[in-house]
């Protein structure tokens, strides 16, 4: 997380606000493709984890081989779609200075290459997650971050156009990551070896339909975010995209811990459904909602309070509107986390057609809403205020969908998730804001806010936010961790 944030500072300094804005406008879809990749991975992982939960290893091999072919087809379709849409956007919509148009188009083509290899890597991400190999995920994530940092350090010395060089290097990195994942999975997991006889036409058809509906839901998120970026560009030009891009980057890094925790819980939730234990599946889904919210809140509270000073330390030159964009997009993410586990539960059951269509429509309301607000003369940040409103509506819909598909009790969700999440975090935020009311902005206030916020969040969660079952599970985890560490530290 910290490597990625520092790399962003270096890239912004090397490219300048305008080129960085162009990069986030045109190639920002690459970052959003990580969400598409996550949704598609979840769809594939659902079938893999379900097979493991049912104890059918042979079916697991069929799922993997079918998913490889399926995602190659999806990757080719996405490439064709992006190229067609890109021709229209560059010719009719985007506001890019003429002298930077060639660089922007080059970045776009690199983005398309990255998109294909990101989608092609989905089956390998899914098999790693299904086997709950979080160590490999962590190591590969660190290697990827260090590679991007090295690229950012070298960027000022690039011998060609820096923007084009940066986009090309990121595309090459995506190819290398896929190669590493494929080699590792082939050696580690027998079910990940390519076998023609393991292809199942019926399964491919079923998975294609499931992945298709999952992609529609993920595309709603991508269209919402990148569509809003295009609308901001039309009204305010490329510089506003720098502020919006920085806000998305900070949000992505702050939510990293929550996303990783959900990634580790996904297999358990789906395996519980696969083994017929619906009660445990719902229980884990609600825990996922609450704990992903807590993890994000732990970092979000001090970040929101001290955002102006954090951005000064991080970037020095802060594009206009960046502070308010950052604060609002983090609030929207906090609301989203309150129903994150329910999304996994719905996917575990498998009947997702109506759910994905409705959630996509809700998310796409951001586009006409943002356009109308800016057309009426409202300031840029109002698009994120509207996004928060849409997230609240979407959270309510996910709860209703989970009730219909999984049997979730709404009263349990309101008390065990919404109430037990919002109350401790609200109290902790009220305590954490105290230093900013009496002290001037500075490093000491930032440090004090961070300490007070961390302690208040931990204590409020412990005494106000946990059920007796969650207390028991956390104590078991801590005991196991302490035992493991103490065993390893004992002299031989």
TrEMBL record:
<protein>
    <recommendedName>
        <fullName>Na+-driven multidrug efflux pump</fullName>
    </recommendedName>
</protein>
<feature type="transmembrane region" description="Helical">
    <location>
        <begin position="284"/>
        <end position="305"/>
    </location>
</feature>
<dbReference type="GO" id="GO:0015297">
    <property type="term" value="F:antiporter activity"/>
</dbReference>
<feature type="transmembrane region" description="Helical">
    <location>
        <begin position="413"/>
        <end position="437"/>
    </location>
</feature>
<feature type="transmembrane region" description="Helical">
    <location>
        <begin position="102"/>
        <end position="122"/>
    </location>
</feature>
<feature type="transmembrane region" description="Helical">
    <location>
        <begin position="228"/>
        <end position="247"/>
    </location>
</feature>
<feature type="transmembrane region" description="Helical">
    <location>
        <begin position="20"/>
        <end position="42"/>
    </location>
</feature>
<feature type="transmembrane region" description="Helical">
    <location>
        <begin position="325"/>
        <end position="345"/>
    </location>
</feature>
<feature type="transmembrane region" description="Helical">
    <location>
        <begin position="163"/>
        <end position="181"/>
    </location>
</feature>
<feature type="transmembrane region" description="Helical">
    <location>
        <begin position="202"/>
        <end position="222"/>
    </location>
</feature>
<feature type="transmembrane region" description="Helical">
    <location>
        <begin position="380"/>
        <end position="401"/>
    </location>
</feature>
<keyword id="KW-0472">Membrane</keyword>
<dbReference type="InterPro" id="IPR002528">
    <property type="entry name" value="MATE_fam"/>
</dbReference>
<keyword id="KW-0812">Transmembrane</keyword>
<keyword id="KW-1133">Transmembrane helix</keyword>
<keyword id="KW-1003">Cell membrane</keyword>
<dbReference type="GO" id="GO:0005886">
    <property type="term" value="C:plasma membrane"/>
</dbReference>
<dbReference type="GO" id="GO:0042910">
    <property type="term" value="F:xenobiotic transmembrane transporter activity"/>
</dbReference>
<feature type="transmembrane region" description="Helical">
    <location>
        <begin position="134"/>
        <end position="157"/>
    </location>
</feature>
<dbReference type="Pfam" id="PF01554">
    <property type="entry name" value="MatE"/>
</dbReference>
<feature type="transmembrane region" description="Helical">
    <location>
        <begin position="357"/>
        <end position="374"/>
    </location>
</feature>
<feature type="transmembrane region" description="Helical">
    <location>
        <begin position="63"/>
        <end position="90"/>
    </location>
</feature>
<dbReference type="InterPro" id="IPR050833">
    <property type="entry name" value="Poly_Biosynth_Transport"/>
</dbReference>
<feature type="transmembrane region" description="Helical">
    <location>
        <begin position="443"/>
        <end position="464"/>
    </location>
</feature>
